[in-house]
Amino acid sequence: MGNVFNRTPFLRKTFYSLLDLLLLRAWHVHKELRHIRNSDPTRQIKILDAGSGFGQYSYKMSRVFKGSTIKGVDVKEEQIADCNQFFQAIGLQERVVFEYADLTTFNEPHKYDLILSVDVMEHIEEDELVFSNLYKSLSNNGMLLISTPSDQGGSDTHDHEEDAVNGFIGEHVRDGYGIQDITNKLKRAGFSVVEARYTYGKIGSFSWKLSMKYPILMLGKSKAFFILLPFYYLITFPFCALFNAIDVNSANDTGTGLLVKAYKK
């Protein structure tokens, strides 16, 4: 799918928009980004996208935080090159750049006002070392925003279908975090205030299965499902959007995801 949508900048933006609509984690992250922006709309900040992947969150932040500078870092060099090429094509290369970096050795002291890490920490064994590096990279009064699976089945560990488990957690080094677990680790790294809440409650988890898991599993079984995919989403997306909105605006007692805010005072 990435190869299809990467043919032109317009298709790449369309791909980002589809991810924003379908991925519940994006709904939660975007809501927090808007809160940060609205607290001081004219302030220009320095942002690190720690584990930038396809660049969709860097693109979103370039639109939310007008005039701010963003650096995306990742360990996959092909994605770094791809993102730099795309952001140059759309004229944002002066504000948004991508570089190779290993977060376990990352060292840019007191540089960033905001660091975003989405679906990264579950892949890194030395997580406390990364938390310490990110803490040191924040300026005073900076914030780290993390989206990661929880230990309530966030890595699909409650699903006994072998193909599903292997497909979704093959690169994970941990099943997920408990709220107290990640809070303690962040405080040991130096963060003075940590706020964590569950995402992907019962309704949100069902929405994820409907919008992402089932289509990916079906595509894995047969590429012919590409033909049926638009019709599948035509039927299911209104329900997914409703379920996502409910999850984003709910105080979930538990959930398969976590959204964490850690502050450096």
Order of helices and strands: HHHEHEHEEHEHHEHHE
Number of helical elements: 10
- Count of discrete domains: 1
Query: Under CATH, the topology is which?
Result: Rossmann fold
Low-confidence stretches: 157-168
The count of DSSP E runs of length 2 or more, i.e. the number of strands, is 7
> How confident is the prediction overall: mean pLDDT?
92
Question: According to CATH, what is the class?
Answer: Alpha Beta
- Give the CATH architecture: 3-Layer(aba) Sandwich
Percentage of β-strand residues: 15-25%
Helix vs. strand class: alpha/beta
Query: What's the story with the biggest beta sheet?
Result: 7 strands, mixed
Distance between the termini: 42 Å
Could you walk me through the main structural features you see in this protein, from its secondary elements to its overall organization?
The protein has about 260 residues and is α/β, with parallel strands linked by helices. It has one domain (about 1-150, about 160-200, about 255-265): Vaccinia Virus protein VP39 (Rossmann fold, 3-Layer(aba) Sandwich), CATH 3.40.50.150. The protein contains ten helices and seven strands. The protein has helices spanning about 1-5, 10-20, 25-40, 55-65, 75-90, 125-135, 160-170, 180-190, 200-220, 225-250, and strands spanning about 45-50, 70-75, 95-100, 110-120, 140-150, 195-200, 255-265. It has a seven-stranded mixed β-sheet, sandwiched between helices. Helix 5 (about 75-90) links the parallel strand 2 and strand 3. Helix 3 (about 25-40) crosses helix 10. It is globular and about 50 Å long. About 35% of the residues are buried. The model is unreliable at about 155-170 (pLDDT under 50).
